[in-house]
UniProtKB/TrEMBL annotation:
Residues 10-292 form the NAD-dependent DNA ligase N-terminal domain. The lineage of its organism: Bacteria, Pseudomonadati, Bdellovibrionota, Bdellovibrionia, Bdellovibrionales. SUPFAM superfamilies: DNA ligase/mRNA capping enzyme, catalytic domain. This is DNA ligase (NAD(+)) LigA. PANTHER family: CHROMOSOME TRANSMISSION FIDELITY FACTOR 18, DNA LIGASE. It holds the Pfam family DNA_ligase_aden.
């Protein structure tokens, strides 16, 4: 039976089951760093839920997974309230959906013709927001549920890619958002050490990175090979770039590593060309990605 064959009562029952299943997987992934299904299987559950809610909007509630981001902060960590919500990305799964997305952007901006779009690898790691005041790193937080995350400042200070002090000229308040990740080769070496020590191995680099950062003992984090890409901003006291492309260049100038390869595209065809290029490169990239 296809989704279009569901009666309201059948849709209600399936919706309730999907909500519970997705919530369980969100907790396993975001709080416990121990996913039970693949990203592709999770995306399939979300697409099915989205389809039901599109067909039967009366089933949408404030507790729907579509209205949430990540999962609530875990116990044991101090909570951090994000001044600007730290949201997640929506997905497109075909060139047609990509064209639709670009069309929505054009209508929102009230422009016609090509628009500049930055394309870059979507790193499969732990989202993190770094807050600088007066050029000094004062706080690091996980995304959590988008509104409230976990304070991981002490742990993040051990990550070499994270600048602890920025050069003169940066905004007085600057939040740099990005991804904490572990390289593939370093992940393999870590698992080898785990086996030698008789400890449990990690499922994948993303969970190894997340599990390494979300430790109450920062010495454990210090012993793990972690990296950070900064590619977005949260609260900023003064603008410092006119475009996303310029922002990447400025962050790099200030000492942040940027996820490469990146490209400045102007239409769906160029984005698809870039996407196909990255998919060919994907097995040889030093880090895991889960899209573009």
């Amino acid at each position: 039976m296809g989704l279009f064959d569901l009666s309201l009562e059948d849709a209600r029952a399936r919706h309730k089951k999907l909500v519970k299943e997705i919530e369980r997987h969100d907790i396993a992934y975001h709080q416990n760093d121990a996913p039970e299904i693949t990203d592709a299987d999770y995306d399939a559950l979300r697409r099915e839920l989205d389809k039901i809610e599109a067909d039967y909007p009366e089933l949408i509630t404030k507790d729907s997974p579509a209205a949430k981001v990540g999962a609530a902060p875990a116990k044991g960590f101090k909570k951090v309230r994000h001044v600007i919500p730290m949201l997640s990305l929506s997905n497109v799964f075909s060139e047609e959906e990509l064209e639709d997305f670009i069309g929505k952007v054009r209508r929102f901006l009230n422009v016609e013709g090509d628009i500049a779009i930055v394309a870059e690898p979507k790193i499969d790691g732990l989202s993190c927001s770094l807050r600088y005041e007066g050029g000094e790193l004062v706080q690091a937080a996980t995304r959590g549920d988008g509104s409230e995350g976990e304070d991981i400042t002490a742990n993040v200070r051990h990550i070499g890619d994270v600048p602890k002090k920025l050069p003169k000229g940066v905004p007085d308040i600057l939040e740099v958002r990005g991804e904490i990740y572990m390289r593939r080769d370093e992940f393999m070496a870590l698992n080898e050490r785990q086996v030698e020590a008789g400890k449990q191995i990690f499922a994948n680099p993303r969970n190894a990175a997340a599990g390494s950062v979300r430790q109450l003992d920062s010495s454990i984090t210090a012993s793990r090979p972690l990296h950070f890409f900064g590619y977005a901003t949260g609260e900023v006291s003064a603008p410092f770039a006119k475009t996303q492309w310029d922002m990447r260049a400025k962050l790099k100038e200030w000492g942040f590593k940027e996820n490469e390869p990146a490209a400045l595209c102007k239409n769906a065809a160029e984005i698809m060309e870039y996407y196909n290029k990255v998919m060919v490169m994907r097995p040889d990239l030093p880090f895991e990605i889960d899209g573009v």
